[in-house]
TrEMBL record, chains A, B:
CDD domains: CYTH-like_CthTTM-like_1. Residues 2-149 form the CYTH domain. Pfam families: CYTH. This is CYTH domain-containing protein. InterPro entries: CYTH-like_dom_sf, CYTH_domain, NeuTTM/CthTTM-like. It comes from the Bacteria. SMART domains: CYTH.
Length: 157, 157
């Protein structure tokens, strides 16, 4: 078990691309998306993972992650997951001592670009890059589990 | 992914004990117990497993099972699982070419004894032992996920 401490921001422009890697395509879905815990299946590159996260306490939550066979993940995504699978490309972007992850969503969530950064402590100092705009860490709408149920394309204008 | 094909019966007396092994103590809980899938955490003997099962189609359902660290299972059981943990002792009982599993429930489900047998095919011939009474394969009340929410002790008399 690990503790995930993460802050999340809207991305306001493309300046992050200058420092980004080539990105990794990800497809993920939710076996369960509940208040007290989520169970996620993710295909990323050539690997697959099952991830369980507990309820959020501020910007922290417990996280359990296991490698699973890719074929299992594909079947679960096709047959057991609720909502719309999340398809996105994740880029790693180093900035001022942290590695940010920029998620460029596709499909039903196309148009949405989010930046996340994992911290060691909730009160850790963070230098926000110019391309990171409004913080949305506590906003449920931007949780991937919620985007699976209520994709960005379905949001009121 | 495997397919679990299983029949379940009420146990009417103790005659099964003559052929039974010493049994294994199990504690299990549910991260999610939904119509379309369940996510179970189980401690059994010195091991721990995470098991995902799909919706039932007759007596069959898809099943994905992974070994996980025991410490993870204990934390999940304590912090993330819904309902009452299921505590039971499972005995293996060979009978007429099949290995039956007899679950003697404890705690909030004490008094309940169920026998399960896994089959290779849904229409496989099965010789029912004398101690196996009414079949409850399709009865949701006897699903462990349901017993976790509505323990036997809470059932109307």
């Amino acid at each position: 078990m690990a503790t995930e401490i993460e802050r999340k921001f809207l991305v306001v422009d493309d300046a992050w691309r200058e420092q980004a890697d080539a990105g990794t395509e990800m497809v993920q879905g939710y076996l369960a998306a509940q208040e007290h815990c989520t169970v996620r299946v993710r295909l990323a590159g050539s690997g697959a993972k099952l991830t369980i996260k507990g309820a959020s306490a501020g910007i922290s939550r417990s996280e359990y992650e296991y490698d699973i066979p890719e074929v299992d993940a594909r079947t679960m995504l096709g047959e057991l997951c609720e909502g719309t699978p999340i398809v996105k490309r994740r880029y790693r972007v180093p900035h001022a001592g942290h590695v940010w992850e920029v998620d460029v969503f596709e499909g039903a969530n196309a148009g949405l670009v989010l930046a996340e950064v994992e911290l060691d402590r909730a009160d850790e100092a963070l230098e926000r890059p110019s391309w990171a705009g409004e913080e949305v860490s506590g906003d449920h709408r931007y949780y991937n589990a919620c985007l699976s149920r209520y994709p960005y394309a379905s949001w009121p204008a």
